[in-house]
Every structure is written in C-alpha cells, then in structure tokens.
Amino acid sequence: MRNGNVERRLLLGTQGWQRAEWIGSYYPADLPPEWRLAYYANDCGCVLLPAEDWCSGDLEPLRAALGEAPSSLVVFLQAPAAEAAGCDLRLLAAHDTVLLVGRYDPRFAGIPQWVARAPDLWVDGESANALVRWTVDAIDLRDLRARAERLPEATRALVLDGGGADPGRVAELRALLELMGRS
C-alpha cells in the first residue's frame, strides 16, 4: 500500500500491539519490547494506533519498534484532536502510513487521509478503500462470520479491538474470511 491504496485484498490487525495481557500469552515473555511489533507483523498486516500512542510523550520506544518491524506493515494512525500540538510523522516514513481523520486535515497534507464515515469506519476519498474496526469481547467465529457477511465490499483493512482482540487469533479470522471469499 502506498499513497493510501491497499494492494492486498484485506489487511488484518489489532488496535495497538502492546497490551500487557499479550505478554506470555501471545508474545514470549523474554521477547524484548522493541521486537514485539516485528513479531506482531508475522501475524498481522496492519496496526491501528490511537493518537495518544504516537503523538505524545517519549516517541523513542515507538521509533525503536518501527525500526525492527518490516516495512510492509501498514500503520493506521488516528489523528490527534485539532488543538493537539504538531505530531512528528517522520518516524513513520519507512512504513505505509494512513491517517484516520474526522475530516480532511490540512496540517497533514501529503499524507494519505481516510475520513470517518461512522464511528468504526474510515474511507479513502480517492480509492473508496475502507478500514473497519470491530470491537470483540471474545473470538467467536460464528459472530465474526455474521459480521463478515455485512462488511462493506470496499473493506481493505479490518482491525480488532476490545478484550477479545488477540493477534494470535488473527490467523483464524483470516482463514474464515478466505473460506468466505473475502480475503
């Protein structure tokens, strides 16, 4: 994906990659933190980062993690509030990056921006590609199948969030979507 155009049929991922409950269950307990994103990228093709994860505080841990991750990982960034100080997008230059905005934001001209059409749906105005975020309490394949049947045809990225989101289970979702002809 370059310039906001997803090349693969459907990217799968989670919101964030650093949940404490994933250490020991998904990530090996002895895996260095800066290697976790690269490990995550073995199972997921994208990650969604809320503004507070990339636009505030010490960015060195994020910079280190991105330095270890493959450049094929697509990074979706939720835009900061309008009153937020400028955010440094240079640290993401080596990755396909898409900014998720409420409406086009001229502060980030030159970066692909997908605009919110619903609380968990963002659409690229040029290609009509869409990112959908599902909140899941548990990985229930029957529930996910029903949701997948209602996915917009233009969905090019699907992100799981909530207590049931687990990058270790993304392969099951991918298999389900492949069986349904959606991935």
Note the main attributes of this structure:
183 residues; alpha/beta; 8-stranded mixed beta barrel; 20% helix; globular; disordered N terminus
Report what the structure shows:
The chain is an alpha/beta fold and 183 residues long. The protein has one domain. The protein has helices at residues 36-40, 51-54, 60-68, 141-149, 170-179, and strands spanning 11-15, 46-49, 74-78, 96-101, 113-118, 121-124, 130-135, 155-161. It has an 8-stranded mixed beta barrel with strand order 1-2-3-4-5-6-7-8. Helix 4 packs across helix 5. It starts with 10 loop residues before the first strand and ends with a helix. Residues 1-8 have low confidence and may be disordered.
Order of the strands making up the biggest sheet:
1-2-3-4-5-6-7-8
What's the quaternary structure here? single chain
How much of the polypeptide forms β-strand, as a percent range? 15-25%
What does the main sheet amount to?
Answer: 8 strands, mixed, barrel
Approximately how much helix is present in the residues? 10-25%
- Number of separate strands: 8
Mean pLDDT over the residues: 87
